[in-house]
Amino acid sequence: MNNPMNRHDRKPLWLIAVVVFSLAFPLQAGSPVGDSRDLKLVEKWEKVANGVFRTVVGNHDGEMHYSDLAAASPKIETLNRLPDVPISKALKSASFRLLADGKVLVRIPTEPGEKIYGYGLQFDNTMKSGQIVELKVDHFKKGGGATHAPVPFYISSKGYGVLFNTAKYIKIHNQVGSRKDSKHNPEEVDRNPPADEKQAGPWLALPPGDAVEAFIHGKGLEMVGFTGTSFQDIVARYNLFSGGGAMPPLWGLGFWHRTPAKYSAEQTAAEIAEFDQHRIPLDVIGLEPGWQSKSYPCTYEWQKKRFPDPGKFAKQLLDDGIRLNLWVNPYISKHSRIYEKMKPLSGSHLVWLGIVPDYTLPEARQLLVDQHKEDHFDIGISGYKIDECDGYDFWLWPDYATFPSGTSAEVMRQTYGMQLQSLMHKELFVKNNQRTYSQVRASNGAASSYPFVIYSDSYGHNQYVTGLSSASLSGILWCPEIRSARNEREWINRMHTVCFSPLAQLNAWASKTKPWSYKNATDAVRNTIELRMQLLPYLYTAFANYNQQGIPPVRSMLLETGEGKDQSKEQERKLDGETDPYADGFHQKITEDNSLYMFGPDILVAPFLNNSTKRQVQLPAGNWYDFYTGKLLGNGNKITITAKQFNDLPPLLVKEGALIPMLTKSVMRTKDIQGAAIEIRHYGKKDGTCQLYEDDGQSYDFEKGAYTLRTFALESGQLKQKIVKKGAKPLYGDVSLRQMTK
Amino acid sequence: MNNPMNRHDRKPLWLIAVVVFSLAFPLQAGSPVGDSRDLKLVEKWEKVANGVFRTVVGNHDGEMHYSDLAAASPKIETLNRLPDVPISKALKSASFRLLADGKVLVRIPTEPGEKIYGYGLQFDNTMKSGQIVELKVDHFKKGGGATHAPVPFYISSKGYGVLFNTAKYIKIHNQVGSRKDSKHNPEEVDRNPPADEKQAGPWLALPPGDAVEAFIHGKGLEMVGFTGTSFQDIVARYNLFSGGGAMPPLWGLGFWHRTPAKYSAEQTAAEIAEFDQHRIPLDVIGLEPGWQSKSYPCTYEWQKKRFPDPGKFAKQLLDDGIRLNLWVNPYISKHSRIYEKMKPLSGSHLVWLGIVPDYTLPEARQLLVDQHKEDHFDIGISGYKIDECDGYDFWLWPDYATFPSGTSAEVMRQTYGMQLQSLMHKELFVKNNQRTYSQVRASNGAASSYPFVIYSDSYGHNQYVTGLSSASLSGILWCPEIRSARNEREWINRMHTVCFSPLAQLNAWASKTKPWSYKNATDAVRNTIELRMQLLPYLYTAFANYNQQGIPPVRSMLLETGEGKDQSKEQERKLDGETDPYADGFHQKITEDNSLYMFGPDILVAPFLNNSTKRQVQLPAGNWYDFYTGKLLGNGNKITITAKQFNDLPPLLVKEGALIPMLTKSVMRTKDIQGAAIEIRHYGKKDGTCQLYEDDGQSYDFEKGAYTLRTFALESGQLKQKIVKKGAKPLYGDVSLRQMTK
Question: Compositional bias (Basic and acidic residues) spans (chains A, B) (predicted)?
C-alpha cells in the first residue's frame, strides 16, 4: 500500500463482509450445477494474486495460453498490494462440459441486468450483452467479434472479469440462449394471442439469457478470473497479470509521419525539411514498403536504388532527433538472404507467395532477429510497423495449414501478431536495452506489456473513437491514424483524435495529404500537435502508471472511477455494512458513452466527429472545466459544446481539482524536452494532486529503479512537491503553478 | 437406354477414349501427392453407379451423412442407364490429411482456368472460384456460404462434381491459397519495384490457387464424386444419387396465397371469395401462426376462437378445390399436449422458450406425426410451411447445445430442416399415400427427393432470381415468393418471377398487398397466373423428369445442354477421337448469367428486375423465339427486350424446334384440368419433340407404374403421338398442334 501511484489505495471498501460471504458460499466442488443439469461445476479456482484466480477445465496441457506469450511475468507483488477482493459469485458458480464432438463448453452465470463489456478492439460498441462473438483475428469484419485484436477477456458490471486463456478460436454467447432446465427463464408468451387473452408480457424475439457461455474445439480450457473494486481496478489487474502496461520511449509519444511507399532517402529528407518549414513537430518518420528490395513478400533488406547508404541516412536523421520506423509484413521473399534457411522453418502455405515463418521455433526467431539487428537496429532503426498479420481469411494461411512446430493454423493466426511483437520486443530491443514504440496490425490476450500500437485501414471517425474505448478494456493500444479527410473540418477533427491517442500518426501518403494541405487548417493542426507535445509530461506519466499499475493511459469512460463525484453515497454504503458484496459491492456508476474518452487521469476528450463543429456531452458527475480557460462547463448535466468555443483546438474537459503537468512551450522534437520548464495547471476549486515521472526516456534502466517520481499536491493554494523516488537525472526544468480557474 | 425421358441418350460422347485413360492413370493409392507433400492420396474411390464414386478418408463411422437423410434410395438403375463416364482426374488426384488439432482436410486439385459452381442456395452468385465458403445453415448472411441450404456440393467446369457427405459445418477454400510445395504457383512479383525494374506480371492481391481444399472438425470424411457429360448430367446424377427429384401433387403447382397471422376461418373464407370475384386462380391457402392455440413456441393445435371447427372448414375448402397449408415452427410450447412427453426427448436449450425436439429419435418423430395426423392430416391438411429451422446463431440453439440422442448441435443445425421434411414426408404423407407440396426454411445435401420448397424473408429481386439458378445446382427448390413491392411495376415483375418458379406463392399478408391491390396491374397479374395454370401440363411433365431423371424443372443457364445450337462442332470433336477426356471431354459452352433461367426444357425466362421495363439478354446459341408471337428474337446475340413488347406478360423466350404442351384455356383450380384440351405450341422451323406426363396428381401410385407418358414428335408439319407408357387414366382431353412461327 506504499506506492503512491496506486490509485486503488483511495478505495479499500467492504472487505470485511466479503470474507464472511466467501466462507458461507454454499456450492460444492464438482457437483452438478443447480440450474444446468448437463454441466459440472468448475472444481477449483486457484488464487494467483489478490483478485486474480485461475482454473482449468478438462485437460489443457500443451495448449498455447495468451499469458505464455506476455512480454513480462505477472506483477504479483503489485497485485498483492491491491485490495484482496474475493472471487465473485459468478466465477464460483462457473460450470463446464466436455462435449462428445470435441468441444469444451464453459458457462458463467449472470444475473438479471448484468452487463458484459470487452473482447478486445471492437469498432461497433463496448457492451456485448445479447451478442454472440466469434473471436478471430481478421481485419475485415466490424462487429461479431472478428477484429485485429479479438481478446477473449470480458468484464462484468457485477465486478469481475474473465480471460479465456486459450489461443484457439472461441465463440461466446453473451447472455444469448436459454437452457431448458434453467430456473431463470422468462415466462413463455404467445406471439399471436386472440384479442381477449392477456399475456405475461410482450413477446421477445430474444428472451434474455442468464449466462456467458463459451466454447472452443479442444479437450480443455484455462480461465483466469479477476475481481476488483471498479472496472478500472479489474482492467488494471488484468494488465498487471499480463506483465503490466507497455512503457514507450519518450520519443514514441511525439508526432509521427509516414512517407509514400516509393520514396527515396532524398525525398524523405525533403519531406522532413517541409515539416520544419511549416514548424510542425516531428519525432518519427515511417518508411513504407518500398524501402525494401522486394515487398509483398518482403526481403527486409534495403532497396539500394532508393537508400544507397541507409546507415548514413539513419544517422543524419537521428542527429536531428528523428527516428525511423520500418514497414514490414511477415511473409518472406525468395530474394531475401534469410529465405533459404527460413523455408524449412515455415508453414505449408504461402501468403502473397511468400513463406510464413513459424516463429514458435527459436531458430526462426533468431534468423529474423539477426538480420533485423544487422540491417536495422545497428544503424539506429527505432521500430517497425508490422502489417498484414491480421488479414482476411483469403489473405492469410487457411485454418488447415500446418507448421513445422506442430502449432495449429488457428493458434498461429490468433497469435502471429503477438509472436512478432514478442520476438522484436524481447530479442531485438529489450535484449539491447533500447525501448521501441512500434505498430502492429494484430494483437490478442495478455498483450498489455508490448509497446506496440494497433493501427489499421481507414475506419469511420466514430469507429476510430470507439476503438480507443474498447482497446482500453483489454490491455491493447489503438492508433486512430489519419489517412485522409473529406474536407478541412474533418481533417482538423481527425487530427484532434489522433493527437489525443496513444500514438499520434499521420499516415496519409496514399491520399497525399500533409499537415499543411488544408491551408486554413494549418494553424489548428499545428496547435493541436503542439498541445500534444506540451502534454508529454502528463502523458508520459500516465504511461508510467500503465506500466507499473496497469491503468490504461487513454481509456473508456467505463474506466472512470468517479473521483470527481460526491463520495458521500459510497461512504454511507460503507458505514451501513454490506451483507452481499457480490450483489452490491461494486460501487461504480457506469458511464457508457463511446463518443467520449479519457486522456490520462484528468482530461476528458469529447471529439467532434467527421465534419461536425457542435455536439452534446453528457458530463459524468463532478465539476468539469474548459481545459483552455478553466471555466466551469457543468456537473453531471448534458451540455452542448462547439468547435468555435475551443478555437478549433481539441475539445478537452478537465476534472475538478485536477493538476496537469505540461510544458510551458511546445518543442519540435521530444529531445528538446530536456530541461524544459513545466507548468502545473490547476482546475476548479478543490485541492488536488498529480504525479510527474522522469527517466532517461529510452532504455530499460527504469525497471531497475532508474526513474524519478514526484507528487505535487495543492494545499491552500500552495504547490507542495514530494519526491517519492529519485533514481534518474531530471528530465524537466523549473516547475510552476498556473491557476486556470479564476 | 430405353427410357424416353432420358435426355442423356442424345449424347453418348467420347466413351472409348475414357476407358483407355482410366487404365493408364499413373497415381498409386496412398502415396504422397506430387504437389503437396504434407498430404496423402485418397486411397480408393468405390464406384456406386455410372458416374458416381464414393470414398472415405480417415474414420467417418457413426457420423451423419446427408445421403442417410435422403427421402429415397439412390436410383442406381437409372444411373446405370446413363453413360459410364469414368472418374475424373481431379477426383483421382484428391488427397487428404488428418490434422493434429482434430481437423480433416481434403484437397481436390484444379487446373488453370477451372471454375467452381454450387454450394446450395446462394443469393450472391453461382460461381465460387476465388471464394471461401463456410457452409452453415443461417438465413441471415448473403454470401460467404451461410444460407438456408448450404449444400456441400460443387460442380467443376472440368466435368465433375463433389459432395462432401457430412452434416458437420464445413469450410471450403475454392482455389484460394497457395501451398509452399506446389508446382503450380505463379512467379513472385515485387509490389513496389523501382521504375527501371521489370516484373513477371502485375502484382496480384490474391494469387490464383490450384485446388479446392475443405475441412471439418472430425476424424474422417466421406466424399461422393460425380462425373457426367454436361453440368446438367452431373447435377442429374447427384439428384438421382439423392433418390431422384421431388414429385409434387398437381395442385401444388397451382397458385398459393397466405392469409394474415390472426385471420379466422370466416376471414379466410372471405378472402378466398375475393379471389374468385377477381377471377384469380387459387389452389392453396396458407394459414399463418395464429391458427394455433399458441405460437412462437407452438402447440400445433387449433386456436378454437379462430377455427371453431377445423374439420368442417377444411372440408368446405377441399370441396371447392382449395388445399390448406399450415405454418409451423419446430419449437414446442408448454401448452401443447405433446409437450410433456416430448420434453425429455428434446435438447438442452430452448428456442423462444420452446423445447427443441430431437427428431433423430423415433419416439420424438412418432409423437409429432401422431399429433399432426390426428389434428391435420385426417381433416385434409395438405402440407406445412416449416419456419424458423434456419435462424441466426442467436435464434437457434448454440453450437454446444446437447441432444438426448447424442447428436451434436452443429449436425442438428445442418440437418434440422431435413429431419422435419423427412418425418412429415415419409411418416405422414408417403405412409398415407398422399403427396404433399410443402415449404421449409432450411434444407441441405441429398435433399432433392423431398417435395419441400425453400422460402425466406424478403430478398432483393435479383437475389430471388439468382436463388432460382443456384438452387437448381444442388437439388433444392426455391420459391421467390412475393412479400411486397415498392410500386406497381415491381409488383408485376415479381409476380412474373414467382409464377415462373417451382412454387407460385403470394405471401404479402404483412404488407396487405393482394393480387388486385394495384388496380392497373390486376390484368397483368391475372394473365400471368393464368399463364402458369395453362403451362401446368408442361411444368408437371418437367417435374416428372426431375423425379425420374433428376433434371431440375427450373434451372440455371449453366444446366443448359445446348440442344438449340449447331451440333456440328461437337460431332467433329467426337469423330476426331479424344486423347484426354479429362482435359477436353466436357463439351459445354457455359452460359453464366444468373439474370436468366430456364423454366422447363424449352422456355428461357428473362425477368425484368425490380421496376425495370427494359433489359438486355445475351442469347445462348441457337434460335430463340417470342413465346407469345412465335417471332424469331435472335441467335447467340445480345438483344434488348421491353415489357411493352410482351404486353406486361412474363418475358419468355422459346428454343428452336420446341414443342410446348399447355392448356388451351386457364383454369381457376387445378382440379378443373381433368379433361381440359391441350394445345402443343411449336416454335421455329425445325422439327422437335416433347413429352406429356399424366397420373392421378396426388398419390404415390405413379411409383408403381400408375402413370401415362406420351411423346409427341413433329415430323414434316405433322404431330405424331407415341404412347411410351400407359398406366393411368387420362388427365387431359384433346391434343392439338399450334404453329407459332409463321
Answer: 178-199, 562-577
